[in-house]
Design a protein that fits this description.
Elements: H1 11-27, H2 33-42, H3 46-59, H4 65-79, H5 84-101, H6 104-107, H7 115-128, H8 136-151, H9 163-186, H10 190-202, H11 214-233
C-alpha cells in the first residue's frame, strides 16, 4: 500500500501557516481571521493535541540516535490515542473556513522551514493508523528524515521572525491584563479574585530580544478564552 502526503490534512503545516498568516495580516493592518481560526481549532481540540506532537519534533534537536528513536516512537504511540473521527471533522471544517477568508492556493504557497519534518511525521502517523501493509521504503525514508532532523543542531529554532507579531502579541497582553484587572475589581468572590491576580502576574509582554513562538500564540488565545469565560460566569 502506498501513502501520500497531504498538506491540507497536515496539522503541523496548517498551524504554522495560520501563524504566518497572522504576521502577514498584521503587517497589512487588517484584522486577522487566522487568529480566530487558531483559537477555534487549536485550543482544547483534537487538532491542538495533535499539533503538540508535531511541535515536539520541530523543537527538538541534537539527540543521540537512540533517544531520537524513542521520541519518534513515543509520539507515534501518542498519535494512536487521538480521536481520528474528530480530527478528520475538525480539519475539514478548518479548511472550509480558511477558504472563506483567504485564497487557498495563495495560503498554501508560504514556505515553511520544517515542511519536510511535518510531512515525514504525517506519513508515519498515517502508517500507524492503518492496518494495511505499507511499503517499507516509505517508512524507512520518512523515519530517516526525522532522525536526521533530531540529530542535528538547529540554531534558529522554530520562531516566527516578525517584530510586528511581537508588537501584536504585546498589545493583546496589555488588553488582557486590563480586562483581568477590571474583572478582579468587579468580582466579589475572593477565591476567584486571587486566581485572576495569579494569572495576571503570569502574563508578561515580550522584550525586543525575544521572538514570538507558536506557544506564545496558543497561550494568548487561551488567556483570551479565560477572560470570556470569566465575563460569562460573572455577568
Amino acid at each position: 500500500m502506498n501513502i501520500k502526503h497531504s498538506k491540507y490534512k497536515n496539522t503541523g503545516i496548517l498551524f504554522e501557516l495560520l501563524v504566518r498568516q497572522v504576521t502577514a495580516d498584521t503587517l497589512n493592518g487588517v484584522e486577522s481571521a487566522a487568529i480566530k481560526l487558531i483559537q477555534k481549532y487549536f485550543v482544547k481540540s483534537e487538532l491542538g493535541k495533535e499539533y503538540k506532537l508535531y511541535e515536539a519534533l520541530t523543537k527538538t534537536t541534537t539527540l543521540t540516535e537512540s533517544k531520537a528513536n524513542v521520541l519518534i516512537q513515543t509520539l507515534l504511540e501518542s498519535s494512536k490515542k487521538l480521536n481520528r473521527r474528530a480530527l478528520k471533522k475538525e480539519k475539514y471544517n478548518l479548511i472550509n473556513e480558511i477558504k472563506t477568508s483567504y485564497n487557498l492556493e495563495e495560503f498554501f504557497k508560504t514556505k515553511l522551514p520544517h515542511y519536510k519534518v511535518h510531512a515525514a511525521y504525517y506519513m508515519l502517523s498515517e502508517v500507524q493508523s492503518t492496518e494495511a501493509l505499507v511499503d517499507t521504503d516509505i517508512i524507512v525514508s520518512n523515519k530517516m528524515t526525522l532522525l536526521e532532523h533530531l540529530s542535528t543542531s538547529d540554531i534558529n529554532g522554530e520562531k516566527v521572525e516578525a517584530e510586528v507579531l511581537r508588537e501584536f502579541y504585546n498589545t493583546e497582553v496589555d488588553k488582557i491584563k486590563a480586562q483581568l484587572n477590571e474583572l478582579s475589581s468587579q468580582i466579589t468572590d475572593k477565591a476567584v479574585q486571587i486566581k485572576i491576580n495569579e494569572v495576571n502576574n503570569i502574563i508578561e509582554t515580550l522584550d525586543k530580544t525575544v521572538n514570538v513562538t507558536s506557544d506564545n500564540i496558543v497561550n494568548i488565545l487561551q488567556y483570551l478564552e479565560l477572560v470570556e469565560e470569566l465575563k460569562t460566569a460573572h455577568g
